[in-house]
Amino acid sequence: MKIKNHFDELSMLFIVVFTILSFAPLVYAEDISNHWAVKNIDLLRNESIISGDENGNIYPDLFITRSEFVKVINSVFYYDEKDNANFPDIKSDKWYSDEFCIAKKAGYIWGDQEGSANPEQNITRAEVAVILARILGLESEKKSSGFMDNQDIPVWALSSM
């Protein structure tokens, strides 16, 4: 599996999971110099994994959206081949349109019951687990995660947790 520059798979997986579990979004705060995650943010920015909003701002204390996460995954794993069709809820003029065509082609985003990608919704930990399990081939047959909040985990995510 090919990933960005000098990172090995485990290091990149840690960065992606850490970013998501800390709910650090992919847009820069005007002044993040004293933020607890500044080193990780700078590392991700220097590796061109995150870029911020149109002004280069990152807001690390906000939630990350599904579209932002898809952009990170495509960058980390060098996914760049696009599917011919996009999800029905993604308009071609949105910045993330190509990102979802790539994710669809890579096979790690399938869409919800209606086939929608819900790009502007915040991503959940369960969704992150499912995406990473698909990419890394880590799904199991387990019907229980072993976590204390197992009852709160959606059935569709249990095998990935």
Describe the structure.
By secondary structure, this protein is mainly alpha-helical. 34% of the residues lie in helices and 0% in strands. It contains 5 helices and no strands. α3 (66-76) packs across α4. Residues 21-29 have low confidence and may be disordered.
- Supply Rg: 16 Å
CA(first)-CA(last) distance: 22 Å
- What class would the helix/strand composition place it in? mainly alpha
Q: Quick check: average pLDDT?
A: 81
Q: Give the CA-based shape.
A: globular
How large a portion of the residues is in β-strands, by DSSP E?
A: under 5%
Q: Compute the number of strand runs.
A: 0
Helical proportion? 25-40%
Largest sheet: none
Summarize the structure.
The chain has five helices and no strands. The two termini are 22 Å apart.
Per-chain topology:
Layout: H1 9-21, H2 38-46, H3 66-76, H4 97-106, H5 125-136
What keyword list fits this structure?
single chain, 161 residues, mainly alpha, 5 helices, 34% helix, 0% strand
